């Protein structure tokens, strides 16, 4: 962290030192509240831990589940270590194909997180751009974009994602879809959920755009694009920040739902959702761990993000758009 | 009121038009129905004849015109797989989904209102904190996972051997936490009662109700926490308002203030959100029906996708579109009626 010291040594009047970003964060209410909230600390720790473990999965996982040579079909459906009949090579047991459950969960978490983050970035790009345009430009642009958002939201984002996923898969064929599943899922979930961002951004842009600093920028002759992105956008960041956490959790759940319906990641490169799906076929034969252990990981991941989102909303307390 | 109705109607028609174009565009691009309908040995000339007979060789606009004209008359084409009108297939599957959604809504309303109101009135009570904790966990568990957990516990059964079996309390606790698992988790059961037409109901017999229990709880589990949190938040806001303070100052009994004065205004946003969530319920019904093999519209839709049964896919999309548009319009109207501050002719707030 650099501390921009602007004290002029030769002048008598010393200007007040501008605090660095780190110092501003340390003095902020956000940090103060974080220090006192043990739930938030725990959740952040779990979330960061899961992200690190997931993205380091090629280094940490005992086996490479994508490598068919390392899979032994004879070792399929072995239980986790605390149940009789377990094999010490497989701590959490194996799935129906004989893949080490721990390794495949680590890799699967990485896929789920990748799609979650990717989809939220796409949503944010689309939603922020459209929300800014709708709020700042107003008029016809606003009417058109918000009508579009209303229609799409009235169909519920999951429904849109399921229908688009199903249609794309049926049109392009299963093999093609599986090969580009990560990109497809990011596109589908990203396109299905942009209205959430657009509405939030639009609501705070409407509150901001009549303030003096916007008028001043306009009087200076700045172009609309610059005013929107450089002046208005930074002041709408806190609600964006809050819904981003919730949206990551939503995107991960949507991905899991699509994969569970067979419209997502293929079983050769499973996400947490497709692991749950493939394990579900074996639950009646008593192998509950294949479906419930990935399920538990999914719940812990989503729960920690949701609790962080709750805490953030309480701290920042923006008037979020309901619904 | 009339002006508002007409405006809403125009909007609904526009949305349905967009849906029909999209649905038809799908039909035009989706798979090759002829390949699905005939066997390997059928020669190309016969396939071509079949294509011609089904009208698959006509230009896009001609096909759309024919499709729209038929759709308005209630003819959505013939399902390639069932070989009967697609609307009949949907009509046969619709009651199962409606009953499932109805049972879930019942659970949601019965539980969310008392729990939401209680945790708003006593936000610091242990029980309220427990409910809020459970509800955030509930939001974080995807609906299909809830369904799988329910199946494991109540249908397959779990045996707990965590506590020492030798001691009396240990075996008692083991028995207490173990479940037998005799709840049905597959389909609608054998004991359906025909009401009229295609409508066979689960609600009339014990066996039917038993089959309905797990799926409806699973489907309710995703919405219930949302409604509890919403009702709690709205109720807490209403409790801060001047008219509630005034009612309390007048000496009206607290029960009356809570349930007559405050609850009325709490329900306003609940109606709007509830209407929107009906759509989400249809989406989650697909997941629930998949897990429980519940023979409703959602399962039918997924099967239709796998069979490239385009008329069925398209009619499902159209029917779901109608359901969404109708519920949204009704919600807007009801909201206008119960909230006198909304001017129906102007832009509804």
TrEMBL record, chain A:
<keyword id="KW-1003">Cell membrane</keyword>
<feature type="transmembrane region" description="Helical">
    <location>
        <begin position="174"/>
        <end position="192"/>
    </location>
</feature>
<feature type="transmembrane region" description="Helical">
    <location>
        <begin position="111"/>
        <end position="136"/>
    </location>
</feature>
<keyword id="KW-1133">Transmembrane helix</keyword>
<dbReference type="Pfam" id="PF12911">
    <property type="entry name" value="OppC_N"/>
</dbReference>
<feature type="transmembrane region" description="Helical">
    <location>
        <begin position="232"/>
        <end position="253"/>
    </location>
</feature>
<keyword id="KW-0813">Transport</keyword>
<dbReference type="GO" id="GO:0055085">
    <property type="term" value="P:transmembrane transport"/>
</dbReference>
<protein>
    <submittedName>
        <fullName>ABC transporter permease subunit</fullName>
    </submittedName>
</protein>
<keyword id="KW-0472">Membrane</keyword>
<dbReference type="InterPro" id="IPR050366">
    <property type="entry name" value="BP-dependent_transpt_permease"/>
</dbReference>
<keyword id="KW-0812">Transmembrane</keyword>
<feature type="transmembrane region" description="Helical">
    <location>
        <begin position="288"/>
        <end position="309"/>
    </location>
</feature>
<dbReference type="InterPro" id="IPR035906">
    <property type="entry name" value="MetI-like_sf"/>
</dbReference>
<dbReference type="InterPro" id="IPR025966">
    <property type="entry name" value="OppC_N"/>
</dbReference>
<dbReference type="Pfam" id="PF00528">
    <property type="entry name" value="BPD_transp_1"/>
</dbReference>
<comment type="similarity">
    <text>Belongs to the binding-protein-dependent transport system permease family.</text>
</comment>
<feature type="transmembrane region" description="Helical">
    <location>
        <begin position="148"/>
        <end position="168"/>
    </location>
</feature>
<feature type="domain" description="ABC transmembrane type-1">
    <location>
        <begin position="109"/>
        <end position="309"/>
    </location>
</feature>
<feature type="transmembrane region" description="Helical">
    <location>
        <begin position="42"/>
        <end position="61"/>
    </location>
</feature>
<dbReference type="GO" id="GO:0005886">
    <property type="term" value="C:plasma membrane"/>
</dbReference>
<dbReference type="InterPro" id="IPR000515">
    <property type="entry name" value="MetI-like"/>
</dbReference>
From TrEMBL, chain B:
<dbReference type="InterPro" id="IPR035906">
    <property type="entry name" value="MetI-like_sf"/>
</dbReference>
<feature type="transmembrane region" description="Helical">
    <location>
        <begin position="266"/>
        <end position="287"/>
    </location>
</feature>
<feature type="domain" description="ABC transmembrane type-1">
    <location>
        <begin position="94"/>
        <end position="335"/>
    </location>
</feature>
<dbReference type="InterPro" id="IPR045621">
    <property type="entry name" value="BPD_transp_1_N"/>
</dbReference>
<feature type="transmembrane region" description="Helical">
    <location>
        <begin position="130"/>
        <end position="163"/>
    </location>
</feature>
<dbReference type="Pfam" id="PF19300">
    <property type="entry name" value="BPD_transp_1_N"/>
</dbReference>
<dbReference type="GO" id="GO:0055085">
    <property type="term" value="P:transmembrane transport"/>
</dbReference>
<feature type="transmembrane region" description="Helical">
    <location>
        <begin position="313"/>
        <end position="338"/>
    </location>
</feature>
<keyword id="KW-1003">Cell membrane</keyword>
<comment type="similarity">
    <text>Belongs to the binding-protein-dependent transport system permease family.</text>
</comment>
<keyword id="KW-1133">Transmembrane helix</keyword>
<dbReference type="GO" id="GO:0005886">
    <property type="term" value="C:plasma membrane"/>
</dbReference>
<feature type="transmembrane region" description="Helical">
    <location>
        <begin position="9"/>
        <end position="27"/>
    </location>
</feature>
<dbReference type="Pfam" id="PF00528">
    <property type="entry name" value="BPD_transp_1"/>
</dbReference>
<keyword id="KW-0812">Transmembrane</keyword>
<dbReference type="InterPro" id="IPR000515">
    <property type="entry name" value="MetI-like"/>
</dbReference>
<feature type="transmembrane region" description="Helical">
    <location>
        <begin position="100"/>
        <end position="118"/>
    </location>
</feature>
<feature type="transmembrane region" description="Helical">
    <location>
        <begin position="212"/>
        <end position="231"/>
    </location>
</feature>
<keyword id="KW-0472">Membrane</keyword>
<protein>
    <submittedName>
        <fullName>ABC transporter permease subunit</fullName>
    </submittedName>
</protein>
<keyword id="KW-0813">Transport</keyword>
């Amino acid at each position: 962290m650099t501390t921009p010291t602007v004290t002029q040594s030769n002048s008598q009047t010393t200007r007040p030192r501008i605090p660095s970003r780190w110092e501003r964060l340390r003095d902020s209410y956000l940090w103060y509240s974080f220090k006192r909230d043990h739930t938030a600390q725990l959740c952040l720790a779990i979330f960061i831990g899961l992200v690190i473990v997931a993205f380091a999965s090629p280094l940490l996982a005992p086996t490479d589940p994508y490598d068919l040579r390392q899979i032994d079909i004879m070792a399929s459906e072995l239980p986790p270590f605390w149940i009789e009949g377990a094999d010490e090579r497989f701590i959490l047991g194996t799935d129906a194909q004989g893949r080490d459950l721990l390794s495949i969960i680590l890799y699967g978490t990485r896929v789920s997180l990748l799609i979650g983050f990717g989809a939220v970035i796409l949503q944010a790009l689309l939603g922020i751009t459209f929300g800014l345009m709708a709020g700042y430009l107003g008029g016809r642009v606003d009417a058109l974009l918000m009508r579009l958002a209303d229609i799409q939201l009235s169909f519920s984002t999951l429904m849109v994602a399921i229908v688009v996923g199903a249609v794309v898969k049926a049109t392009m064929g299963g093999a093609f879809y599986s090969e580009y599943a990560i990109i497809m899922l990011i596109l589908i979930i990203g396109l299905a959920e942009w209205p959430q961002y657009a509405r939030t951004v639009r609501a705070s842009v409407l509150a901001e755009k009549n303030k003096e600093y916007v008028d001043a920028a306009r009087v200076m002759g700045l172009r609309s694009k610059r005013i929107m992105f450089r002046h208005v956008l930074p002041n709408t960041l806190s609600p964006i920040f809050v819904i981003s956490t919730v949206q990551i959790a939503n995107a991960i759940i949507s991905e899991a739902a699509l994969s569970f319906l067979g419209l997502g990641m293929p079983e050769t490169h499973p996400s947490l959702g497709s692991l749950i799906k493939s394990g579900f076929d074996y639950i009646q034969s008593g192998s509950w761990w294949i479906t419930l252990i990935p399920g538990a990981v999914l719940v812990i991941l989503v729960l920690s993000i949701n609790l962080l989102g709750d805490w953030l909303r309480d701290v920042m307390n923006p008037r979020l758009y309901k619904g | 009121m009339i002006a508002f109705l007409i405006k809403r109607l125009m909007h609904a028609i526009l949305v349905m038009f967009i849906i029909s174009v999209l649905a038809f565009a799908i039909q035009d691009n989706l798979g090759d129905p002829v390949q699905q309908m005939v066997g390997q040995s059928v020669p190309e000339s016969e396939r071509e004849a079949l294509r011609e007979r089904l009208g698959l060789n006509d230009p896009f606009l001609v096909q759309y015109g024919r499709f729209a004209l038929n759709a308005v008359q209630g003819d959505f084409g013939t399902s390639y797989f069932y070989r009967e009108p697609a609307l009949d297939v949907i009509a046969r599957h619709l009651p199962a989904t409606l009953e499932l959604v109805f049972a879930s809504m019942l659970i949601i309303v019965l539980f969310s209102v008392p729990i939401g109101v209680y945790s708003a009135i006593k936000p610091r009570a242990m029980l309220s904190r427990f409910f809020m904790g459970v509800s955030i966990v509930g939001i974080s568990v995807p609906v299909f996972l809830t369904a799988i957990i329910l199946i494991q516990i109540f249908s397959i059964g779990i045996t707990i051997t965590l506590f020492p079996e030798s001691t009396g309390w240990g075996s008692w606790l083991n028995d207490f936490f173990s479940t037998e698992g005799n709840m049905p988790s597959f389909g609608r059961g054998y004991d359906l009662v025909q009401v009229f037409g295609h409508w066979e109901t689960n609600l009339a017999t014990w066996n039917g109700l038993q089959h309905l229990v797990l799926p409806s709880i699973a489907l309710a589990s995703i919405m219930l926490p949302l409604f509890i949190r919403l009702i709690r938040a709205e109720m807490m806001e209403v409790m801060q308002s001047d008219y509630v303070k005034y009612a309390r100052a007048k000496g009206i009994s607290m029960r009356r203030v809570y349930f007559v004065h405050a609850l009325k205004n709490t329900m306003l946003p609940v109606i709007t959100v509830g209407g929107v969530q009906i759509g989400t319920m249809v989406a989650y019904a697909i997941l629930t029906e998949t897990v429980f093999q519940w023979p409703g519209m959602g399962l039918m839709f997924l099967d239709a996708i796998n069979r490239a049964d385009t008329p069925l896919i398209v009619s499902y999309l159209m029917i779901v579109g109608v359901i969404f548009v109708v519920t949204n319009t009704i919600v807007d109207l009801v909201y206008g009626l119960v909230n006198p501050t909304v001017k129906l002719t102007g832009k509804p707030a």
